[in-house]
Amino acid sequence: MNSSLLKKALPHLIAIAVFLIVSIVYNKTALEGKVLHQADVQGYTGMAKQSNDYREKNGHWPLWSESMFGGMPAYNIAIESTSNINKPLLAINWLFFLNKDVPWKPISFFFSACVCFYILTQVFGLSLLISLLGSLAYGFATFNPILVVAGHDTELIAIGYMPAVIAGVLLILRGKYLAGTAMTTLFFTLEVSIQHLQIVYYTGLIIGILCLVYLGTFWKSEKIKHFFISFFLIAFSLIIGSLNLAYTLLPTRELVTETMRGGKSQLTAVNSNNKTKGGLDKEYAFRWSYGISETLTLFVPGMQGGGSAGKEITGSSKFADKLAEAGVPEDNALAMANNASYWGDQPGTSGPVYLGAVICFLFILGMFYVKSWHKWWIFSISLVGIILAWGRHFELVNYFLFDHMPLYSKFRAPSMALVMPQLGFALLASLGLQEFVDSKENKEIFFKKLKNTLYTTGALVLISVLVFLMSDFKADSDSRIKGNFMSNILQQQAQGKQPTPEMQQQANQVVSGWMSALQEDRRAIFESDLLRSIVFVLLASGLCWFYYKGKIKSAVLLSGLLVLSSFDLMLEGKKYLNEDSYTEPENIESTFTPSNANEMINADPEKNFRVLDIASGDPFQDAHASYFHNSVGGYHPAKLALYNDLIEHQLVKGNQRVYNMLNTKYVIQKGQDGKEHAIPNSGAFGSCWLVNDIDFVDNADQEMKALDSINVRDTAIVENAFKNKIPFMPLKDSSASIQLIENQNDKISYKFKSKTNQFAVFSEIYYDKGWNAFIDGNPAPYCKVDYVLRGMSVPAGDHTIEFRFEPKSYIMGNRLSIWAGIITYLLLISAVLQMAGIIKSKAQSQKLKAEN
Fold first, then answer.
1. Prediction pTM value
2. Among the residues of 471-553, which ranges form H helices?
3. Which residues pair with 805 in a beta bridge?
4. How far, in Å, CA of 532 to CA of 537, rounded?
């Protein structure tokens, strides 16, 4: 029995070993003590610092963060259940992705993606070599290394789990109900736990398309009972998988309605015709739409010039040569050439989505050789993913879906949908290759399919050549690039004087020559990669032809294609993820080394104030300050809509009273010496204050406009809708006082003393989905004041005021997660017991046969 089990397990052990070795070799720099330089990860480090410090001190993460945008829910920063029941389920995340003591990153990203795709191939019963080919193609498609460099770790981890979720769904549809339900629930739980909900959404979309094609294919086969059971179990698995993370999903669902992604703004001027009800603005959401012709990057990676994170140009560059002649250092000139090489329809990109020339060829082969219904759902998800990625370039479909498809309007960057063809191409290529080598068809039919494959691939090559010949290699950004060059040259020539027409004409001629050289570089990139893809296709088709002719065996064919495909993708991926992507750990740590300005601010004994950091650029797109201080700025893709309104209508124009009401005590800016300096703001109002009057307005527009003129230190601005929250108007008492006692993120305490009734304003962001107010332990009403802050009527006397963040959605989510966890464990235990029973039964059967 042991020998039999080992024999069956050997291919899987070999596959795991291959994935591990390839992932390590591909990312060997990670084992040399260096770390990745990832801008987004550094941003997360800044936004999560306060939450992590709180956890170190209190044993759990806070639900509210004070470190960004004046304060906001911390659900999307770091959150955990009040119960430990789900920790064993999520242990794999800690082992592979979150354990900082083990240098797994980014090795684990590629390894897990390959393993999960391999699980999917085994559901289809594919051979070892074909499974390796498909798994490596999925795991090392260029989108993955590009995500690593960009620091989109959660996105890449979620992409890795996707194939295993699909594998579980397919098991259910095959009638393996218990095993399929357990697998789908487990891997969907893991995928959801990473909290990249856009990839989770695409996973659900794939499952929906798969089930529709399955239903359409077999609806006449009288499998009504099987349909009902299967679809019920698939839905059950996805629901339980989601409920395992209900403690984060429910609060996030509640939060999103109050954020930019929920499309919520109380200002009527903000609500444009381009805005989807309850969703993002279309212009913002569809900004990163893949161009229709740009889709050819799936086959020819550099057809649009590559991307800013890559090294498409490493040697000869006409553009770099021109810059070098003008005195630009050679390395800088080459870097500028690479940064300007992209000329596609997106505002910019780190790199192209390239699925591999060999994989594209095998995908076409799969379209002709695969006979099963699987071909159609795989083709469908690939096509749907491409159409969704086109975004604004295919408004007729995509704007309709954005307006009507549930939850879709919460997401941006349509180009991300190309993860669907990333899965589809690798899978159909694998299935087609298996059919190709296993085919029992007669020579004539077999040859006809091969001929059609070659003709279709030839058509793809021809289209690519025509696009190359018809391209002008110009980008919308070229005018900006040219303008910057012109400005620099004229500034140097004029030396502070008005440039003459002759100077302008001469500068224009010089820069026009530079731009022509840049377009030649872009042409050279396209031409080189087009020839490269043609060579790989010729080699792959040659191997298939020799196999058809009987010149080589299937093992040689598969080994050759495996090497070709893997070499193709990994070589391209190395343009983006290479040794230059890494740096010494101390260089990353130095990013968060406090400056003299930070140290000066941190020495302030008061602590509960905010900082505006304008030293490093846009303070509302940078979380660096949040690492050291409570900030009025920060970075988060789902900031509260109220605060976003305040940024756009008050903070960016520098309304000092608004900064004062946000208790902005320090401004960090760079001095003439190039160093950061902390400038105190003596006008900051403090953590709380009492006002003499209340100015009632009819709506949010009037409230925002009132901030331009009203002195909010003396007068609170309140919408009439909140009048019922204010039982009395404030009465003057010169001795009245209110002060902050303690701020523990989720609990804030104040001391109040007055002989008369007062109205207090708290420099805390209004969010009524969880914040409860208490006076001397008794619930008390509060309202929104000054557009974003909290205000409260306080009766005369000595009182203790508390705000406690107690979101009911989090409490309910924890309860649901416990029950979902119990169900998941029961499923997994039952599936394991069933598998053990099957193995035992087979062993006994084999033993009886041997005895007879």
1. 0.92
2. 478-494, 501-548
3. 771
4. 9
